[in-house]
Amino acid sequence: MPPNIDAEALEGQPCDLTIAEAEAALRDGSLSAVALTESVLARIEETEPALNAYVLVTADLARERAARADEELASGLDRGPLHGIPFALKDLFDTAGIVTTAGSGFLRDRVPEEDAFVVAKLHEAGMVLTGKLGMHEFAFGTTSDNAHFGTIRNPWNRDYTPGGSSGGSGAAAAAGSALGTLGSDTGGSIRIPAAVCGVAGLKPTRGLVSRSGVFPLSHTLDHAGPLTRTVEDSALILNAIAGYDPTDSQSMERPPEDFTRELGRDLAGLRLGVPRDPLWANCDDEVVAVCEPALDELRALGAETVEVELPSFGASRRLVISPVEGAAFHAQWLRDHPELYSDEVRGKIAAGLDRLAIEYFRDLRTRAAIEHEVLAVLKTVDLLVSPTLRRTVPTVAEGDPESILASNTRLYNVSGLPAVSVPCGLDGNGLPVGLMIAGRPFAEATVCRAAHACEQATGWPRRPPLVGG
After folding, report:
1. Measured distance CA(50)–CA(366) in Å, rounded
2. Is 91 exposed, middle or buried (0-12, 13-18, 19+ CB in 10 A)?
3. Is 189 a catalytic site residue?
4. Cα distance between residue 364 and residue 349, in whole Å
5. Residue by residue, what is the 3-state secondary structure of 114-163?
6. Is the pTM of this model over 0.90?
7. Residue-wise pLDDT tens for the chain (469 aa)?
8. String of DSSP letters for 77-97
9. Residue 210 catalytic?
């Protein structure tokens, strides 16, 4: 059984700051990057291996880069809001000279020669790498129960899942063992952990953030983005990682923008689409009971709500795009080394290999039709609002064998639209419930505006109690 964590002893440390708060403290001289990094490293020691969020801690590298950040800031070289901020990466982002496993025993010794595109951009921004975070094997799941590296635990209660596949990212962001994290999202793998760990998780518009150097699951549906304690922090990270990359065929060339620019504005004039059927209709009563008051808060802040329909939503749950593209990538490795895959992931890949080409191409057309339908709805409203998850958080023992946790989230991978999960309350077990807000292509600033307003109105951020066993 994992050791107990003294949650009371963990309160009030520099690692409990948000990125925005830490940035201000670094600039006014009340905090150094070295002190902030030491606080985060101490939190890692206090919460690992109980949470098992980290597969690798790069303590020496973090101390070296924190010292460099202090020197640069003292000399007048300011790389921006992320300069000197400790962060950690889901272990499918390539890191030059540092093992990157994609959650697989098969790649346990894989050391990339180059950083992923977004990792290089974060280094340019001066962030301090504290390590690599655990995940579901090859991102093929929603619980982060990993046969090779062990089970990741939810910091609100370690008997419960942190979600997946970016479970380590959600757990670390919630626990304060990283001020910022990155995850990937193919069917909900940023927003699911964000919802169940009580943090903000932002999946950007398809093409806004490069996937080069990010271990793939589905070329068509993969996205990369931040998980952080607050929406503002996610927007700050998005500012740093967004940008055109000619090596990613989906990357789109756009002028730089500040995704924090609408934060703090009221919601007057915003029309919020509420797709009662299907994104609310099949949710647990307990989930709706938490999300409905959050919707009321958005109305109180000036937003108008309009009920809308998404008749093609059901088709998004049956698409074979991700299983087929994942199987195509892994086919040769699976033939040569089937014993190096867990039974769970081996079975998922085999199922993808059994699909017919005609099914795959049919579903590519269906995907385009679903995207067209959602875009048509977004011509009548500014944003779409729903519970992030249909159900409350499952226990580790229960798991998510039918991938119910991805039922609502995968719609915005299929359509490629920006979507954020923001915590809005707790269920009867004291575990977080997330509200999902999605918008038009490249409307991240407006999505974050509404999510930030919800976060503030519902009393977040909150630190988890770090209990259970």
Report:
1. 43
2. buried
3. yes
4. 19
5. CCCHHHHHHHHCCCEEEEEECCCHHHCCCCCEECCCEECCECCECCECCC
6. yes
7. 344 554 444 457 999 999 999 999 999 999 999 999 999 999 999 999 999 999 999 999 999 999 999 999 999 999 999 999 999 999 999 999 999 999 999 999 999 999 999 999 999 999 999 999 999 999 999 999 999 999 999 999 999 999 999 999 999 999 999 999 999 999 999 999 999 999 999 999 999 999 999 999 999 999 999 999 999 999 999 999 999 999 999 999 999 999 999 999 999 999 999 999 889 999 999 999 999 999 999 999 999 999 999 998 888 888 999 999 999 999 999 999 999 999 999 999 999 999 999 999 999 999 999 999 999 999 999 999 999 999 999 999 999 999 999 999 999 999 999 999 999 999 999 999 999 999 999 999 999 999 999 999 999 999 998 755 5
8. ----TTTT-EEEEETTB-BTT
9. no
Q: Is 235 exposed, middle or buried (0-12, 13-18, 19+ CB in 10 A)?
A: buried
Structure tokens at 12: 């009030």
Q: Count of residues for the chain?
A: 469
Report the candidate in 239, 229, 169 with the shortest Cα–Cα distance to residue 209.
Answer: 239
Active-site residue among 90, 121, 203, 348? 90
Q: For residues 127 and 119, is the Cβ–Cβ distance under 8 A?
A: no
Check 32, 189, 210, 234 and give the catalytic one: 189
Tokens of 40: 């985060």
Number of other residues whose CB lies within 10 A of the CB of residue 34 = 18
Secondary structure percentages of the chain, helix, strand, coil, to 5: 40, 15, 45
Cα torsion through 53, 58, 59, 61, rounded to 10: -150
Q: How many angstroms separate the CA atoms of 240 and 242, rounded?
A: 6
Before 162, cis peptide (omega within 30)? no
The phi and psi torsions of 39 (rounded to 5 degrees) equal -65, -40
Eight-state DSSP code of residue 426: E
Q: Clarify whether 144 is annotated catalytic.
A: no
